[in-house]
From TrEMBL:
Protein name (database record): Probable peptidoglycan glycosyltransferase FtsW
Catalytic activity: [GlcNAc-(1->4)-Mur2Ac(oyl-L-Ala-gamma-D-Glu-L-Lys-D-Ala-D-Ala)](n)-di-trans,octa-cis-undecaprenyl diphosphate + beta-D-GlcNAc-(1->4)-Mur2Ac(oyl-L-Ala-gamma-D-Glu-L-Lys-D-Ala-D-Ala)-di-trans,octa-cis-undecaprenyl diphosphate = [GlcNAc-(1->4)-Mur2Ac(oyl-L-Ala-gamma-D-Glu-L-Lys-D-Ala-D-Ala)](n+1)-di-trans,octa-cis-undecaprenyl diphosphate + di-trans,octa-cis-undecaprenyl diphosphate + H(+)
Similarity comment text for this entry: Belongs to the SEDS family. FtsW subfamily.
Superkingdom, taxonomy of origin: Bacteria
One Pfam family matching this protein: FTSW_RODA_SPOVE
Cellular compartment(s): Cell membrane
NCBIfam families: ftsW
Membrane topology of this protein: Multi-pass membrane protein
Predominant location: membrane
E.C. designation(s): 2.4.99.28
Length: 379
C-alpha cells in the first residue's frame, strides 16, 4: 500500500506541469497578502472584527489548494465525468437560486448553504468549458453525433440562467470563451458572422431592457450621467501609488471603496505596492495563460486541446476584465480577480478551473523509457 501511494505521488510529481503549479500557488499567496492589506478597513466599516475577511479568506485558501491539487490526479475521462457532474449540479443550483436565493444589489446569484453564501454560476463556468470542448471534439471525431448542436443548447441554457439573475458580465465572459472554442473547433464563416450579430443584438437588448446595465454603460460613456465614485476612486488610487506605491497599510482607497477587497483589489495593490507590483502580478497571469496555450498546441488530442485552451481563456479573460474595470477601460462588471479577490465561491471555482487545466496538461513517461525527459500525453 505504501509503495503504491509512493509511486502514484512520484508519477504525479514528474507528470504535473510544475512551473504552472508554482505560479498558481504564488497567486494564492498574493491573494492572502492583499486580503490582509485590503479587507480590515471594510470589516471595521461593517462593525466586524478587523480580520474577519482575512480569516475567512485564509480558511478558503487551503480548501482551494486541496481542490486544485486533488483534481490534478484525474485522467481526462475522470475530468469529463467530474465536469458533467458539476455542470448538472450548478444548473440545478442556479435554478434554485432564482427561486429561493437572496437578492444582493438587485441580483439573485447567491444561495445560503450551511451558513455560507454559494454562487453556483461560478462553478458552472469551468464545467461548461470542459463539456463543450468534449462535444466539439466528438462532433469532429464522429460527425453522426450532433456535438455542435448540443453545445449550442447547453450554451443557451447557461446564458438564459445567467441573464435571469441577471449577471451580464459573466454572460459576456462565457459567450467569449464559447465563441473562442467554437472558432478553434473549425467554425464555418457563416457562424462567425451569425455569432457576431447575435452578440451585438444581445448587448443592445441588455442596454435597453436591463436597467443596471444601462446605468453602467451610460456612466462609462458619460461619467457626468451618474455615480462613478468607485471607478474614479480606484483610478485615483492607481495614479497615487506611482511606481513603488505609498507603502503597505498607507493606502486610502480601501477606506472609502465598499468593494476594495473584491472587485477593486487591484487598485489597492497599485496604491500600496505600486505599478511595478501590478506588472509582476500581470506577468504571472500572462505566464500561466501563455504556457497553457503552448501546452494545448502540443497535444494531438482535440478534446484536450480545446479544453485546455478554453480553461486558459476563462482564467485569463476574467483577469483582463477585472483589471480593465479598475483602469476605467470597461464598464464596471462586478467580476473578481482570479485567486486574488475575496470570495469563497470565486476562489474555489478558480481552483477547480486550474485543477482541471493541470489534470489535462499532465504527461507521463513513455513505456520502456527510463529518462524523465521523454513524455507523451495521457491516453
Amino acid at each position: 500500500m505504501h509503495r503504491t501511494r509512493k509511486n502514484m505521488l512520484t508519477e504525479w510529481w514528474w507528470t504535473i506541469d510544475r512551473p504552472m503549479l508554482v505560479a498558481l500557488i504564488l497567486l494564492l499567496f498574493f491573494g492572502l497578502v492583499l486580503s490582509m492589506a485590503a479587507s480590515p478597513a471594510i470589516a471595521m466599516k461593517l462593525n466586524l472584527d478587523a480580520f474577519h475577511f482575512v480569516k475567512r479568506h485564509a480558511m478558503f485558501v487551503p480548501v482551494a489548494l486541496g481542490i486544485m491539487i486533488g483534481v490534478t490526479f484525474l485522467s481526462p475521462r475522470g475530468a469529463r465525468r467530474l465536469a458533467l457532474f458539476v455542470l448538472v449540479c450548478a444548473f440545478f443550483g442556479m435554478v434554485l437560486t432564482l427561486l429561493v436565493g437572496g437578492s444582493v444589489k438587485g441580483a439573485q446569484r447567491w444561495i445560503s448553504i450551511a451558513g455560507f453564501s454559494l454562487q453556483p454560476s461560478e462553478f458552472m463556468k469551468p464545467a461548461f468549458v470542459v463539456i463543450v470542448a468534449w462535444l466539439f471534439a466528438e462532433n469532429d471525431r464522429r460527425p453522426e453525433i450532433p456535438g455542435n448542436l448540443f453545445s449550442i443548447v447547453i450554451f443557451m441554457i447557461a446564458v438564459a440562467l445567467l441573464v435571469a439573475q441577471p449577471d451580464i458580465g459573466q454572460t459576456v465572459l462565457l459567450a467569449m470563451v464559447w465563441s473562442g472554442l467554437f472558432f478553434m473547433a473549425g467554425m464555418p464563416i457563416f457562424w462567425i458572422f451569425l455569432l457576431m450579430g447575435l452578440g451585438v443584438g444581445g448587448l443592445t437588448m441588455a442596454y435597453f431592457f436591463v436597467p443596471h446595465v444601462t446605468g453602467r454603460i451610460n456612466r462609462f460613456l458619460d461619467p457626468a450621467s451618474g455615480d462613478t465614485f468607485q471607478v474614479d476612486t480606484a483610478m485615483d488610487a492607481i495614479i497615487r501609488g506611482g511606481w513603488l506605491g505609498v507603502g503597505p497599510g498607507e493606502g486610502t482607497v480601501k477606506r472609502t471603496l465598499p468593494d476594495s477587497h473584491t472587485d477593486f483589489i487591484f487598485a489597492v495593490l497599485a496604491e500600496e505596492f505600486g505599478i511595478i507590483a501590478c506588472m509582476v502580478l500581470i506577468s504571472v497571469y500572462l505566464f500561466i495563460v501563455v504556457r497553457a496555450l503552448k501546452l494545448a498546441l502540443q497535444t494531438q488530442d482535440l478534446f484536450k486541446r480545446l479544453a485546455i485552451s478554453g480553461l486558459a481563456l476563462l482564467f485569463g479573460l476574467q483577469a483582463v476584465i477585472n483589471i480593465a474595470v479598475n483602469l476605467k477601460l470597461m464598464p464596471a462588471k462586478g467580476m473578481t480577480l482570479p485567486f486574488i479577490s475575496y470570495g469563497g465561491s470565486s476562489l474555489l471555482s478558480v481552483a477547480l478551473t486550474m485543477g482541471l487545466l493541470l489534470a489535462l496538461t499532465r504527461k507521463r513517461p513513455e513505456i520502456g523509457m527510463e529518462k524523465r525527459q521523454f513524455f507523451k500525453p495521457y491516453d
